Amino acid sequence: MERAVKPWPLLAALAVLGAGGLYASGLAMAPGSFSRHMGAHLLLSLGAAPLLVLGWPRFRPVVAGPLAFLLLNAVTYGVHLPVVYARLMTPAGMLLESLLFLGAGAVFWLRVAAGGLGAAGLLLAQMAACALLGAAITFSRSAYAMTTPGDTALGGVLMWVVGGFVVMAAAFYHLLVQLSVSERRHEQAT
């Protein structure tokens, strides 16, 4: 009997490689590209992390929703403090940042994978968190001195729109699943 190969680990690896490429191209630029850097963050926390979770369905430790939310946002908001961001602009700092985003993202998506209304609520809260930080970055163009104001604004828009869309789509999926489960229960009861 042949086992089906799951595409999720390969897709996760490709997302990690894509993030690495964005980081590398950002390091080579003077000033560094904040928007590419933001793209790498999004690939790691909202691309590679959920794909890794999907790729290993047998590994599902129980993660509390508030803990998952706080961890991902502590990393996301902490790394985007201008002073912290400037200090992490070294190869070692970017590796640390990558591991933080991938790890915190995996914890977040482990909770989401558990399903239920809690997953949908967690995703909606994360959508608001992405929008808030993305908007703050978009309109604080001079906070990141190592890049141009336009590039900073583009990075903020990426987080605001792309990051918000990814978690909104996942929240919509989880809400539809909950409605379907509720409908089936109702049909069975009648």
TrEMBL record:
Protein name: Cytochrome c oxidase assembly protein
Keyword Transmembrane helix: yes
Localization per Swiss-Prot or TrEMBL: Cell membrane
Predominant location: membrane
Coiled coil ranges: none
Transmembrane segments: 34-55, 67-86, 92-110, 117-137, 157-176
Membrane topology: Multi-pass membrane protein
Lineage per the UniProt record: Bacteria, Thermotogati, Deinococcota, Deinococci, Deinococcales
Keyword Cytoplasm attributed: no
Keywords: Cell membrane, Membrane, Transmembrane, Transmembrane helix
